[in-house]
Amino acid sequence: MPLMQALKLRRSAREYLNEELPLSIISDMLWAACGVNRASSGKRTAPSARDNREIDIYVTTAFGVYVYDPDAHILSPVAAGDIRAKTGKQKFAATAAVNLVYVADYSRAKGISKDDRRFYGAADAGFVGQNVYLFCASRNLATVVRGWIDRETLAPALHLNKNQEIILAQSVGYPAKQ
To answer: Strands 64-69 and 74-80: what pairing?
Structure first.
């Protein structure tokens, strides 16, 4: 799909079919989000302030929690069980096929003030989220980025450390309405 068409179709949706996404779609979506598109440098599809590459994508499904490794293009298990409801305060978060959680790992942002780290992390998460929006538009998937998250409940479920902060979450699934 041409970029201009994907931009035309980009929208937020909060109603999803109760249907899993195939792993092939999740794989392509994660690569579009922040996969490595320049092997020689390891640079990614989403820009990163000062090339910190501080955004990790945690993937929550009905079957468990995983973290995406862009360099190896694999999902590594984090926890078993369905924690999708913990990724947002809206009811639809519990039923979306996938919830992506954008986590900034500030240990990768050396020599940067706390304020700048948070600003860069928020901007970089936004770039990743927009890539997912465009991917979803190109594949007729529904998505919405969310900031309304109980971070104190979600962080332990993701096994985050003191250098990591949840920035945003993004629900993805098949649209309930066409």
So the answer is: antiparallel
pLDDT tens, position by position, 114-160: 999 999 999 999 999 999 999 999 999 999 999 999 999 999 999 99
Q: Tell me the C-alpha to C-alpha distance, in Å, between residue 129 and each of 49, 103, 124, 147.
A: 15, 12, 9, 12
102 burial level (CB within 10 Å; 0-12, 13-18, 19+) = buried
3-173 carries CATH number 1.10.579.10: no
Q: CA neighbours within 13 Å on the CB side: how many for 164?
A: 19
For residue 62, report the phi and psi dihedrals to the nearest 5 degrees. -65, -20
**What count of residues does the chain have?**
178
Q: Which residues of 27-36 are buried (b: 16+ CB within 10 A; e: fewer)?
A: bebbbbbbbb
Structural domain boundaries of the chain? 3-173
Strand 98-105 and strand 142-146: the pairing is unpaired
